[in-house]
């Protein structure tokens, strides 16, 4: 899993 | 990207377009809080610093540029465009918004996922966004005649937050590792701030009356 998955949100 | 997330982003985009339409076409910013707009400019400037360090998608980059560009141009319009500036409700828009910035920064220094420069600023932007609407809500309450565009702007902003919560619920069930307490709690706080406004907005819509918030 990507730690920064939430960062693809705006 | 799920349907709630896309709908949320589009609602956010629509809110910005409504505001730009009012300012650019009607050359008026009556009822719009410059304090809230300044806070949003700070929110996007601190959150989207990763534009230089990480790439997620063309969509992501483009939307970041749109929100950065629009928030700063709205602030500049309200401050320096002669006609627009004249319509600004300066006497009513008195919320001490800088007092929101410091507590959010301290909270971000204390509560974050990783202690790095970008991560702390990103977390700060989440906390600040949660409360950035407050000056606007206070101004709405003081404004006797809320025009349709201003009402729609705030309604769309609140709608965007609500849709993001649905997006997180969806992601939690479809992406097993998707757990982000900081994002969720600040997003929830932000959405709850709109509850009161939503109530009066729906009342005015139901009764086909002009939107007016109780003092």
From TrEMBL, chain B:
A cellular component term, taken from the record's GO annotations: endoplasmic reticulum membrane
Membrane topology reported for the UniProt record: Multi-pass membrane protein
Classification via PROSITE patterns: ER_LUMEN_RECEPTOR_1, ER_LUMEN_RECEPTOR_2
Keywords noted in UniProt: Endoplasmic reticulum, ER-Golgi transport, Membrane, Protein transport, Receptor, Transmembrane, Transmembrane helix, Transport
Pfam families: ER_lumen_recept
GO molecular function, one term: ER retention sequence binding
Subcellular location field: Endoplasmic reticulum membrane
Signal sequence interval, chain numbering: none
Transmembrane segments: 55-77, 98-115, 121-140, 152-170, 182-201
Any one GO BP annotation for this protein: protein retention in ER lumen
Highest rank taxon of the organism: Eukaryota
Family, similarity comment: Belongs to the ERD2 family.
Protein name as annotated: ER lumen protein-retaining receptor
């Amino acid at each position: 899993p990507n730690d920064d998955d939430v960062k693809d949100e705006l | 990207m799920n349907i709630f997330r896309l709908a949320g982003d589009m609602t956010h985009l629509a809110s910005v377009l409504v505001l730009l339409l009012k300012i650019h076409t009607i050359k008026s910013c009556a009822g719009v809080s410059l304090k809230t707009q300044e806070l949003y400019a700070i929110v996007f400037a601190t959150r989207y610093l990763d534009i230089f360090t990480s790439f997620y998608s063309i969509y992501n980059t483009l939307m970041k540029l749109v929100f950065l560009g629009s928030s700063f141009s709205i602030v500049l319009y309200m401050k320096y465009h002669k006609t627009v500036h004249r319509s600004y409700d300066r006497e009513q828009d008195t919320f001490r918004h800088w007092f929101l910035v410091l507590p959010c920064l301290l909270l971000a220094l204390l509560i974050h996922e990783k202690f790095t420069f970008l991560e702390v600023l990103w977390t700060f932007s989440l906390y600040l966004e949660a409360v950035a609407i407050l000056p606007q809500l206070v101004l709405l309450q003081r404004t006797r005649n809320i025009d349709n565009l201003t009402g729609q702007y705030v309604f769309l902003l609140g709608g965007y937050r609500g849709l993001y919560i649905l997006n997180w619920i969806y992601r939690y069930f479809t992406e097993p590792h998707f757990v982000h307490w900081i994002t969720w709690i600040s997003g929830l706080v932000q959405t709850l701030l709109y509850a009161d406004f939503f109530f009066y907005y729906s009342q005015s819509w139901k009764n086909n009356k002009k939107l007016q918030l109780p003092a």
